[in-house]
Amino acid sequence: MSAFIERQRRYPDLLAYPGWDDLMHSQLAWGFDCGPGWLPLIDIALATLNWGSQHAPTATIHVRQVKEKFGRLTIYADLSNVPPPVRDGILSILSHLADLSTYTCEQCGQAGALRSTGGWWQTLCDACETAWQTADEPLSQFRIRLGREF
Ligand SMILES: [Zn+2]
């Protein structure tokens, strides 16, 4: 079972997506578009959003996209009818998780650093950067190879 499907079963409301007929609204049809090294950070984000759902009964919270963007973990979520204090708390935690992702290797989860290599921003550890620089394949293939069917 993929890491995404496993979490979709744990948080069916958060990770529900409309389906193929509404891909412009949700990018979750592709799962998590980042490396497996950030799974612990994603889990904190999902737990935070789930906490928000439980503490704001009138709220509707849906994750729209989880991806790497300029080397950072980027999570887009709809936070409808979420009271401002809860909303602010959630957004603050998601922002801190994005900051922490720039110190966490996206591929293996070890201590990493935000790097610009060949025009791509990525957060990698030294070993994964070496593997990436010596890989004779495009970034997407590199991710799939290192990601182990993430
Ligand atoms: Zn690494």
Automatic annotation (TrEMBL):
It comes from the Bacteria. This is Uncharacterized protein. It comes from Sulfobacillus acidophilus (strain ATCC 700253 / DSM 10332 / NAL).
